[in-house]
Specification:
The chain is of the alpha+beta class. The chain has one domain. 18% of the residues lie in helices and 35% in strands. The protein contains four helices and 19 strands.
Length: 283
């Protein structure tokens, strides 16, 4: 009996060590200036990408007349979902998302929140570095932690809640102050009618989402209201979904090609992006 228990414990320990070793093997430096590894050209198809560290698939659909495009992706390490900025932290510099993504060897790119347009009352963190630390009582804040899990803070006391999250051991890798949250802990959010950023205008919309552990999605709608984007997100069985900058800022890029009919002459320079990379170093 003791030998059997010992064997089971050793088997479990070996499995745990193997899983930890695999995770570490795919971890990338958090450094925002890290150039990343190029993707495998053979891993691309028209609407998908695959290598041993990353799976991406593109889908499209329509909900109540609203066209949407979704890029689902599964990573081996949370460090593969990354952010980049056009200049240095808090520098008023903008660049095309396609150019920023190409410089970072991105497989997939989504616009960020154009944070340099707002000068106060925002909580911004990029690749572990806090740019600004004053959370707006009104704007929803998305925190992505070191495990790759999303946390959306919506209350007027979010500054204290974010601090409590950190005091309890939560580590913030990226944080955004745009919003609103669209799906929170698996439930469709009730959008406030007075939220920012032209909620009733039908325009380009983007959202970053968590599906499950190390499983995510980018959403791009060429024309939708905030509520219509929320409805789309709620229909996709997501754990968390968060609205980012819209209008001409809204863009999704896969393998250097625009998703959903966007064109180069309508791409807008911006301060920041989210992007996804391979974690396989190739010769």
């Amino acid at each position: 009996m003791k030998k059997r228990i010992c064997f089971l414990l050793c088997t479990m320990l070996l499995a745990l060590c193997t899983a930890l070793a695999e995770e570490t093997a795919y971890d990338l430096p958090l450094d925002i200036d890290f150039p990343n590894y190029p993707a495998d050209p053979a891993g691309f198809s028209e609407d998908a990408y695959h290598d041993e560290s990353l799976d991406v698939r593109l889908e499209s659909g329509s909900l109540h007349g609203v066209q949407y495009y979704v890029a689902y992706f599964q990573v081996k390490s949370p460090t593969q979902l990354r952010t980049a900025v056009a200049g240095r932290p808090n520098e008023s510099v903008a660049a095309l998302p396609s150019q920023m993504g190409k410089a970072k060897n991105a497989v997939l790119v989504l616009n960020g929140e154009y944070y340099i347009q707002r000068t106060k009352d925002i909580f911004i963190c990029r690749q572990g570095k806090v740019f600004r630390d004053q959370a707006d009582p009104v704007k929803d804040v998305l925190v992505i932690d070191d495990r790759g899990d999303f946390h959306i803070f919506t209350s007027k006391e979010k500054a204290a809640e974010i601090q409590a999250f950190q005091d309890q051991g939560g580590k913030i890798v990226n944080a955004f102050s745009f919003g609103p949250g669209l799906v929170i802990d698996g439930k469709k959010a009730e959008l406030r009618k007075d939220y920012y950023f032209y909620p009733k205008e039908r325009t380009g919309r983007s959202a970053v989402c968590q599906v499950d552990t190390l499983s995510y999605a980018f959403i791009y709608c060429p024309g939708a209201t905030q509520q219509e984007l929320c409805d789309v997100a709620a229909s996709l069985n997501l754990r968390q979904a968060y609205n980012l900058d819209g209008g001409n800022s809204s863009v999704m890029i896969f393998h250097d090609s625009y998703v959903g009919g966007k064109k180069r002459n309508t791409e807008r320079e911006q301060s920041d992006i989210l992007y996804v990379v391979s974690a396989v170093e190739r010769e």
